[in-house]
Specification:
Blueprint (H helix, E strand, L loop, with lengths): L1 H25 L2 E2 H8 L3 H14 L2 E6 L9 E5 L5 E7 L3 E8 L4 E8 L6 H19 L6 E8 L10 E3 L7 E3 L1 H9 L3 E5 H11 L9 E6 L3 E7 L2 E3 L30 H4 L1 H10 L3 H6 L9 H9 L3 H25 L3 E5 L7 H14 L9 E4 L6 H11 L8 H10 L1
Parallel strand pairs: 4-7, 7-10, 11-14, 14-15
Antiparallel strand pairs: 1-3, 2-3, 4-5, 5-6, 8-9, 11-12, 12-13
């Protein structure tokens, strides 16, 4: 009976989401054109649009061209109609931004963190970061639908919990979503960082017209987000995309997950730094302030930009190992494109050329059916934007009931 009783409300929310998606995709647009594109009747569209205007999610922006009668009034997304916080959590830093309904950043903040400090310390740092961002934005808290958190951990079926974060000390079975919701008072959505990047590519980046693609994040770890038929794939157990823990060297370096020779032990930033530190060049040591123990990935990248052979060799090894892994992987999942997000993109073709060469050796149809391997064009804010999309996308889908109800209770 509950299901039947909720059907009118569900249908209403579905229709609102359809209208929001249509305006997002095709706006500025008239009510008549929304009716034509959605198949909903004009009276239904008039009622839905009135509600969305009243809620502040849409706005009228002027008149369009007449086709013989009165000039139509055009509708568009109201940038100030709703906001979400997007947070990027890595083992080294915490960055956050308040993002408007048109996916523009209106306030931001960040700080370094200590991965050894433990869950409670970092939890409090996230809470304070979000509160600082909201306060500095001067946006009324009733306009904030929630916060999305992009994190480097492993998630299972429970979307509010992180099962394991190998790069963050003692993070096992931590209820980060629940803890943040209790302290902040609004909805919180968690997602693995690489999947968040896939969302950003799908909504704002180069994958807006691609149904099947892989987003790969090479950072302090290695992860991937897989989109199949236009939907983010999380897998049966919620662990799809853990590319970094594919074993590529059976007798390789121990990984924090407990295995040896995982891909991230060869490809990620710590692996690159470790290789350079074994026999650093004078240029890298100089960039690290004369102390080889202080070498960081930014020093390696800067040296590579200066054509330092040691730095370039370590970056090439990372690229070739990733190319081999992707070639094997794509023989199984068969997607149209791969988007790479990483600071290593600064090396340009000195990174991509060996990656693509190695990929071609292992992919089954490198010439007959080539795969596009592309740098993400979203820049350094992509994770924060993608995290905010976890919340803002709810206005464009029927899953938005929870956030909308919370906002409605505050009005």
């Amino acid at each position: 009976m509950d299901t039947l009783g909720n059907r009118p409300r569900l249908l209403k929310e579905m229709n609102r989401a359809v209208v929001m998606r249509t305006v997002w995709n095709d706006g500025p647009i008239s009510r008549t054109d929304i009716s034509r594109k959605t198949g909903l009747s004009v009276p239904a569209i008039l009622k839905i649009v009135d509600g969305l205007l009243e809620d502040g999610f849409l706005r009228e922006i002027g008149e369009g061209e007449s086709s013989g009668g009165r000039k139509p009034v055009l509708l568009d997304i109201n940038p100030k109609g709703a906001y979400a916080v997007g947070v990027e959590l890595t083992p080294e830093r915490l960055r956050g931004a308040l993002v408007s309904l048109d996916f523009e950043i209106v306030a931001r903040d960040g700080q370094s963190i200590d991965p050894e400090s433990g869950y409670e310390v970092i939890l409090e740092q996230i809470v304070l970061l979000i509160k600082r961002i909201v306060a500095s934005s001067k946006v009324d808290s009733s306009m904030i639908l929630g916060a999305g958190i992009a994190h480097p951990g492993v998630m299972g079926e429970e979307t509010g919990k992180i099962l394991l974060a190998t790069n963050l000390k003692s993070w096992r079975d931590v209820p980060l979503g629940e803890d943040l919701e209790r302290r902040l008072g609004f909805p919180v959505a968690l997602e693995v960082d690489a999947r968040v990047l896939a969302l950003a590519e799908m909504w704002l980046g180069g994958a807006q017209d691609i149904k099947n693609f892989l987003s790969v994040d090479v950072d302090y770890g290695v992860g991937s987000g897989l989109v199949l038929d236009g939907r983010l794939y999380r897998g049966t157990r919620g662990i799809a995309g853990e590319l970094g823990h594919m074993v590529t060297e059976a007798d390789g370096v121990p990984c924090a997950c407990g295995k040896r020779g995982c891909l991230e032990t060869v490809v990620a930033y710590p692996a690159i730094v470790r290789e350079v530190t074994r026999s650093p060049s004078p240029a890298v040591v100089e960039l690290a302030g004369g102390d080889s123990a202080q070498i960081r990935i930014e020093h390696v990248l800067e040296a590579a930009m200066r054509n330092d052979s040691v730095a370039l060799r370590s970056i090439e090894r990372s690229a070739r190992t990733l190319g081999k892994a992707l070639g094997n992987l794509l023989n199984c999942i068969d997607v149209e494109a791969v988007f790479i997000t990483s600071a290593l993109l600064r090396a340009g073709e000195r990174y991509f050329l060996p990656l693509r060469e190695e990929f071609g050796k292992y992919f089954l149809l490198p010439e007959e059916k080539p795969v596009r391997i592309l740098p993400s064009a979203l820049g350094e804010d992509s994770e924060m934007l993608g995290a905010a999309i976890l919340i803002l996308r709810e206005l464009f889908h029927t899953q938005g009931r929870r956030a909308l109800q919370v906002r409605g209770e505050r009005r």
